[in-house]
């Protein structure tokens, strides 16, 4: 089976490996090289690095809307286009080129969390489970019928980064199953997504990582988990802006104004919220590295409480 793969970030790499193992990946599409890292030097995407290592030809068009790009894909005569976090819109003309259409590996249980950031939004919302869907693509945003799906529980202290890595591997497994069934011509009939329960996972914005103490501690604790390792929650704590890498919600009646320092010790730094308190366990000062609250308090002895 002649497979063309389209993906960009690290999440897509396990799926590229699965596709390579299940068929002939004749080309890999990925976004053009972008500035990355502190030095902002131009860097190839993780998918480009993986494809190059495996000897797979790489294409990096700015858009697939151009006729020249579509003609190049058509000339490859692909049986299937597998899309995993590619980041570019596929017009209908592209969806119609492969013999078996286009498949998408999506990190949620559709129709919940269509869109750009399903992993983080599931944690932020307090979902207890999520999963991966293998979807037959159509013109709408993540609206196509589902071919296969697999569910997994979300750990109570699981971060966005940890869940990302688990779902990347789970997505590769589901894709591998789908490709095996396709090759054996026993792929189940896709089932349409229900209209009820549709939610959208809007793209993450760095500004939303600023914690608002007027929210409940439970909500803020979920944000800390969801936004780790990016964009990383941050907040004003005792007059200093800190990045918050680890925190837990405390069911604590305090009567203090939101944002008030309630206690600070080896267990953490407790900040009053509209409901309960948030105990900061791992923090990062500007220009520093992530450290435990206890280590932070060694430099801020003015904050320690009995």
Secondary-structure-derived class = alpha/beta
Mean pLDDT: 95
Question: What is the CATH superfamily of the largest domain?
Answer: Formyl transferase, N-terminal domain
Q: How many separate helices?
A: 8
What does this structure look like?
The chain is of the alpha/beta class and 306 residues long. The chain folds into two domains: 2-201, Formyl transferase, N-terminal domain (Rossmann fold), CATH 3.40.50; 206-299, Methionyl-tRNA Fmet Formyltransferase, Chain A, domain 2. The protein is 26% helix and 28% strand. It contains eight helices and 17 strands. It has a seven-stranded mixed beta sheet. Helix 1 packs parallel to helix 6 (160-183) and helix 5 packs antiparallel against helix 7 (217-226). The mean pLDDT is 95.
Write the layout of secondary structure elements.
Blueprint: E1 2-7, H1 13-22, E2 24-29, E3 34-36, E4 41-43, H2 46-53, E5 58-59, H3 67-75, E6 80-84, H4 92-95, E7 102-106, E8 114-115, H5 118-124, E9 129-136, E10 146-153, H6 160-183, E11 200-201, H7 217-226, E12 233-237, E13 240-250, E14 261-265, E15 268-272, E16 277-284, E17 290-292, H8 293-299
Parallel strand pairs: 1-2, 1-6, 2-5, 6-7, 8-11
Antiparallel strand pairs: 3-4, 7-9, 9-10, 12-13, 13-16, 14-15, 15-16, 16-17
């Amino acid at each position: 089976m002649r497979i063309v793969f389209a993906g960009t970030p690290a999440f897509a790499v396990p799926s590229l490996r699965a596709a390579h193992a299940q068929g002939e990946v004749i080309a890999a599409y990925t976004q053009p090289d972008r500035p990355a890292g502190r030095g902002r030097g131009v860097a190839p995407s993780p998918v480009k690095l993986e494809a190059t290592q495996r000897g797979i030809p790489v294409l990096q068009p700015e858009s697939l809307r151009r006729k020249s790009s579509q003609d190049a894909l058509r000339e490859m005569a692909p049986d299937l286009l597998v899309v995993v976090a590619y980041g570019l819109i596929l017009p209908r003309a592209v969806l119609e080129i492969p013999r078996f259409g286009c498949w998408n590996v999506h990190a949620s249980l559709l129709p919940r969390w269509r869109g750009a950031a399903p992993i983080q939004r599931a944690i932020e919302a307090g979902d207890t489970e999520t999963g991966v869907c293998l979807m037959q693509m159509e013109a709408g945003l993540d609206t196509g019928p589902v071919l296969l799906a697999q569910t997994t529980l979300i750990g109570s202290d699981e971060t966005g980064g940890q869940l990302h890595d688990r779902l990347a591997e789970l997505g590769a497994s589901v894709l591998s199953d789908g490709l095996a069934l396709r090759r054996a011509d026993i792929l189940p009939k896709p089932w349409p997504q229900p209209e009820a329960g549709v939610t959208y996972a809007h793209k993450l914005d760095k500004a939303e990582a600023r914690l608002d103490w007027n929210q409940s501690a439970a909500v803020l604790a979920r944000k800390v988990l969801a936004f780790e390792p990016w964009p990383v929650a941050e907040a004003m704590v005792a007059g200093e802006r800190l990045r918050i890498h680890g925190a837990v919600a405390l069911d604590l009646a305090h009567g203090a104004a939101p944002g008030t320092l309630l206690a600070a010790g080896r267990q953490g730094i407790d900040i009053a919220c509209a409901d309960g308190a948030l105990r900061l366990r791992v923090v990062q000062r500007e220009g520093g590295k992530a450290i435990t609250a206890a280590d932070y308090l060694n430099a801020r002895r003015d904050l320690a409480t009995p």
